Amino acid sequence: MNIKSISDIPAWLFYPIKLWADKDSDNFNILVGTGMILLVLSLIMVWVLVRRLGDSDERTTGVYLKATSIAFVVVIICEIIFPSTYLVNQFKLYKYAFAMIAAAIYLFGEYRKETK
């Protein structure tokens, strides 16, 4: 794959993943399975941390808003990085998993700050 402009760089980066996933159906299932496991685990982490931080009040509303904005920024960055021509739904899975992981990391940091 040749790079003719800056917009071709994400497609060039992820093209080996496309070739690997197209090579065998087991490879495609591994790609989707790991993405699903990553998404489910990150959603569980966010849910547990939200439960530990407590009900929504003046203290936690700012924390939840910041975690949501961090997740939104990660979604925008992944939208720029991931290609939009192939494996679109599979990369959406990873995009939302990475966003939830970023939110969970922030929530964990805030939880650690509050418990110390």
TL;DR of this structure?
This protein is mainly alpha-helical and 116 residues long. The protein has 4 helices and no strands. It comes from Lentilactobacillus fungorum.
Percent of residues in beta strands: under 5%
| N to C succession of SSEs | HHHH
Shape label: elongated
Tell me about the largest β-sheet.
none
Number of helices: 4
Mean pLDDT score:
89
- Give the helix/strand class: mainly alpha
Low-confidence stretches: none
End-to-end CA span: 52 Å
Number of strands: 0
User: Fraction of residues in helices?
Assistant: over 70%
Protein name: DUF2178 domain-containing protein
Keywords: Membrane, Transmembrane, Transmembrane helix
Transmembrane segments: 28-50, 62-87, 93-109
Outline the structure in words.
This protein has 116 residues and is an all-alpha fold. It is built from four helices and no strands. The protein has helices at residues 9-23, 25-53, 58-81, 88-115. The chain is elongated. The protein has a domain at 32-111. Helix 1 crosses helix 2 (25-53), helix 2 packs parallel to helix 4 and helix 3 packs antiparallel against helix 4. It starts with 8 loop residues before the first helix and ends with a helix.
